[in-house]
Amino acid sequence: MKYLLILLLSLTNLNAKEDEKPNIVIILLDDMGYSDIGCFGGEIETPNIDQLAATGVRFNQFYNTGRCCPSRASLMTGMYSHQVGLPGMIPQNNFSNDCTTIAEALSSNGYRCIMSGKWHLGTRKGDNPWERGFDRFYGIPKGGGVYFWPSTLDRDIIRYDKEHGPIVTKPKTGFYSTDDFTHYAIAQIEEAKEDNVPFFLYLPYVAPHFPQQAKEQDIQKYLGRYKAGWEKLREERYQRQIEMGIISAQHELSPFDGAPWDSLSSKQQTAMDRQMAVYAAQMDNLDQNVGKILNCLSKQQLEDNTLVLFLSDNGGQLNANLGFEKNKKAIFGSAQSFGGYAKGWANMSNTPFRKFKITEHEGGNTSPLIARWPARIKNTKAICPQVSHIIDIMPTCLEIAGVKEDKLEGKSILPYLINPEKEPESRQLFWEHFGNRAVRIGDWKMVALKKKAWELYNMNDDRTELRNLIETHPERAKELLKAYKSWEARCKMK
Predict the structure, then answer these.
(1) Using an 8 Å Cβ cutoff, are 346 and 324 in contact?
(2) Residues of 156-182 as b/e, b for ≥16 C-beta within 10 angstroms?
(3) Which residues contact 215 (CB under 8 A, 6 or more apart)?
(4) Are the CB atoms for 390 and 456 separated by under 8 Å?
(5) What is the pLDDT of residues 274-283, one digit of tens each?
(6) What one-character DSSP code corresponds to residue 339?
(7) Gap between the Cα atoms of 198 and 202, Å rounded
(8) CA 93, CA 68: separation in Å to the nearest integer?
(9) In sequence order, which residues have a C-beta less than 8 Å from that of residue 298 and are 6 or more positions away?
(10) How many helices (H) and strands (E) would you count in the chain?
(11) pTM metric for this prediction
(12) Which 8-state DSSP code applies to residue 29?
């Protein structure tokens, strides 16, 4: 089926000439919370990402799967992760060969497909990015967690092109993965421009996934800014979100979930301040690199006809006990450190929502989505309320590239890129990960933690999931449960 689809895609009659095909850039972050960037309420300095939003469209009801491997599988295929073999994590699950990736579809239609960053969809024969449609690759097939080199994790960094095949590379002194992934991506953009070919660039950074590691000069910029405490700073993020129109004031800020800041000793508060300063430094550095990508597109005169999509694979990561640190002697944030930020900071990252990565509550499976395409997106600075999902990325990319494929689970959001004020369409969307599950139909969402009872929320009235209506709307709950069970069967879930 996969190879028949590729053949059909390659025979598609495109209306545009080869040199008129739009370029596509997908920038994917790892474990970034809903409110971490400035244009979604954060205090971290992200001027380049904010400028991307100011010249494009922000989607404030965009969903992922709640976890890295499943989100990547859905992004790459336009299907639910269960349908392509990855309901959970590598290596316990394996990416299906009986599906088509964005890269396979686009490379069969004249695109040069480039990837730089974290793959995390398997390293078996047939699973690697260069075997799934990418012409160029530089990054980490096995997974993330690598910032400095040598790394605290067992990860190979691979470079691939068709002439030389996959080669394990040895990073030079001064390696920092966010910078190096960007450097490679820019070189490939420039090469594609020189060769006069349209390109698809997939740029999945490791940042800001734990271990939280950053350059000390970036960390110093933020030290002291977080001593006001996570409750106060979270409230400030929420107020900025209301002012921006990201969230309505009718949606209350969810209760704080973490240790009270005032309960911490002065020493603990100083340590927590550094934790968040390191996280902010990771994001600041990432924003600098987004700026380099945008500057390259402008310098190469590719900006106008390039669609840039910016999103995250899941919400902020829950770390218990005020953040963990495996190496007790290491300075938090250094190359020798292997720690993650505390629960209170993760809760702030996911403002205004409840819960964290891995769950299917809004704090776990909701992401900012920013889209910029100057040639087609004219209603800039808009906030689009259309409910959409990471399965919609592939059909959107195929539609703008002139490739027709009707058998994907996702739906193209191109109409909402062009007209963000278009009347929102009711969607049926489903989630399951490690027993955490959810279904959303229109304004209604039913969600449950593993082995816990279902909860029912009206998202139009209660986006932050505070008023469980399961007892007062039993018929609505039955409707959603029936749809969820049907989806389970269709996905052949165990």
Answers:
(1) no
(2) ebbbbbeeeebeeeeeeeebbbbbbbb
(3) 176, 281, 285
(4) no
(5) 999 999 999 9
(6) B
(7) 13
(8) 13
(9) none
(10) 13, 15
(11) 0.95
(12) E
Q: Which domains does the chain show, CATH number per domain?
A: 2-424 (3.40.720.10), 426-494 (3.30.1120.10)
Nearest to 164, CA basis, from 136, 193, 195, 199: 136
User: How confident is the model over 223-249, as a mean pLDDT?
Assistant: 98
Is 405 in contact with 7 (CB distance < 8 Å)? no
Q: What is the token pair recorded at 200? A: 């698809």
| Residue-wise pLDDT tens digits, 187-208 | 999 999 999 999 999 999 999 9
Give the separation between CA 206 and CA 210, rounded to whole angstroms: 9
pLDDT at 17: 45
**Residues facing 438 on adjacent strands:** 431, 447
> Is residue 11 predicted with pLDDT exceeding 60?
no
405/104 Cα distance (integer angstroms): 13
**pLDDT of 273:** 98
Helix (H) or strand (E) holding 27: strand 23-29
Query: Rounded to 5 degrees, what are φ and ψ at 378?
Result: -105, -25
For residue 234, count other CB atoms closer than 10 A to its CB: 25
Cα(30)–Cα(277) distance, rounded to whole angstroms? 18
Q: Cα-flanking dihedrals φ and ψ of residue 91, to 5°?
A: -95, 5
Tokens of 203: 């740029």
DSSP string, 255-318: PP-S--GGGS-HHHHHHHHHHHHHHHHHHHHHHHHHHHHHHHHHHTT-STTEEEEEEESSSPPP
Q: Identify the pLDDT of residue 494.
A: 67
- Return the half-sphere exposure (C-beta side, CA atoms, 13 A cut-off) of residue 45: 10
| Pairing, β 23-29 against β 306-312 | parallel
DSSP assignment of 153-206: S----EEEETTTEEEE--PPTT--HHHHHHHHHHHHHHHHHHHT--EEEEEE--
Tokens representing 262 are 């005032």
d(C-alpha 164, C-alpha 355), whole Å: 45
Could you tell me what percent of the chain has a pLDDT over 90? 89
Strand pairing of 366-372 and 306-312? antiparallel
CB 231 within 8 A of CB 255: no
Reply yes or no on whether the pLDDT at 3 is more than 60.
Answer: no
Contact 342, 275 (CB under 8 A): yes
Quick check: helix, strand or coil at residue 436?
A: strand
